[in-house]
Write a sequence for this structure.
């Protein structure tokens, strides 16, 4: 395949300086339009796809959104870090010059697509993937012989290209952070968090592993995303890099102790109280509190008597009606989850547990007063 794409196999066209490139391809129809599906070696991406600076063109005249340069390094790093198992979906593009298609047998939809080197291919979907591939090639990542799937549609006019962009992106559904964590096998923190959850009964039974927020009628108390973020805060200093098992054990010990001092959580686990009722009445399972508890753990686990200190969690009034939470993490009767609220909540809990506050935590409480 890559040999057919190589310039060494390109043939000159008499009377024309352009070179032909022959690509194995499949021909199909979608609606009233004929399109082609082919595999392009990564080394062909910078040759065939050009990146237009759409920022200098009025929005109504653009054929693509402006390239977000900040996304490119992340895609490049993804390829570099996962050279043996990176994955990209197809690139969709429009061709301006009519390509030739030679079926292997008469009437077949499998054959060879003939393009002219220099033909302009307008990217309809996948410009950031293409930019990441080009960047990785420039950095010497050896992916030139790898192949990516390309869908080629005829270019008609700017209106049609804009409509294609809209159609391809309108119904794209971004996966939730919880689902990303659940499915990501490369993230050690995700692995440690999932292993920890299995070791903490209340978390195992009452954690939503799919949604980033809980629905009104949800029977769960926590989200995987919130627990993950809490564990990031907890292990930021005391965690051991690449030690999934050790980190999971540490997390499980801490969260089992927290759960033992959160009787409301236990009431929902034992079905003496509905998750819906607890979430309506109290903040003890809210993501802001979980993040605060995670940060608290990073401080507490340095002390031998951390379990004794955690027992003081039972003395805290977690009710939303408790005026002490006002301006700490409750503003206008709603629980907020910004950085300031998380810092103030952590400081508030530390004060209730009789722990010494840092200057920053003292200031956080003072601002909330």
């Amino acid at each position: 395949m890559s040999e057919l794409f190589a310039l060494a196999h390109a043939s000159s066209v008499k009377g024309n300086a352009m070179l032909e490139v022959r690509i194995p391809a499949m021909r199909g129809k979608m609606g009233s339009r004929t399109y082609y599906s082919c595999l392009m070696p990564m080394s062909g991406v910078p040759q065939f796809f050009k990146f237009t600076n759409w920022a200098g063109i009025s929005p109504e005249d653009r054929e693509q959104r402006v390239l977000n340069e900040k996304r490119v390094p992340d895609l490049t790093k993804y390829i570099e870090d996962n050279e043996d198992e990176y994955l990209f979906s197809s690139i969709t593009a429009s061709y301006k010059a009519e390509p030739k298609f030679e079926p292997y047998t008469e009437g077949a939809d499998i054959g060879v697509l003939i393009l002219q080197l220099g033909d302009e291919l307008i990217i309809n979907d996948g410009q950031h993937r293409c930019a990441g591939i080009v960047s990785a090639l420039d950095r010497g990542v050896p992916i030139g012989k790898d192949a990516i799937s390309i869908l080629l549609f005829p270019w008609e006019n700017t209106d049609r290209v804009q409509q294609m962009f809209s159609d391809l992106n309108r119904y794209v559904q971004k996966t939730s952070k919880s689902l990303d964590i659940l499915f990501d096998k490369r993230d050690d923190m995700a692995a440690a968090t999932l292993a920890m959850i299995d070791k903490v009964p209340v978390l195992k039974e009452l954690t939503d592993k799919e949604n980033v927020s809980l629905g009104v009628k949800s029977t769960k108390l926590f989200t995987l995303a919130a627990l993950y973020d809490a564990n990031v805060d907890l292990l930021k200093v005391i965690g051991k890099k690449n030690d999934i098992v050790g980190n999971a054990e540490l997390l499980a010990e801490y969260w089992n102790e927290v759960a033992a001092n959160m009787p409301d959580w236990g009431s929902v686990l034992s079905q003496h109280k509905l998750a819906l009722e607890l979430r309506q009445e109290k903040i003890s399972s809210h993501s802001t509190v979980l993040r605060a508890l995670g940060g608290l753990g990073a401080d507490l686990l340095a002390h031998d008597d951390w379990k004794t200190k955690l027992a003081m969690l039972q003395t805290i009034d977690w009710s939303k009606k408790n005026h002490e939470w006002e301006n700490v993490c409750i503003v206008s009767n709603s629980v907020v989850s910004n950085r300031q609220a998380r810092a103030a909540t952590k400081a508030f809990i530390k004060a209730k547990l009789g722990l010494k506050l840092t200057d920053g935590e003292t200031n956080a409480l003072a601002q909330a007063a």
Observations:
- The two ends are 68 Å apart (CA to CA).
- The first helix runs from residue 2 to 5.
- The chain has a mean pLDDT of 86.
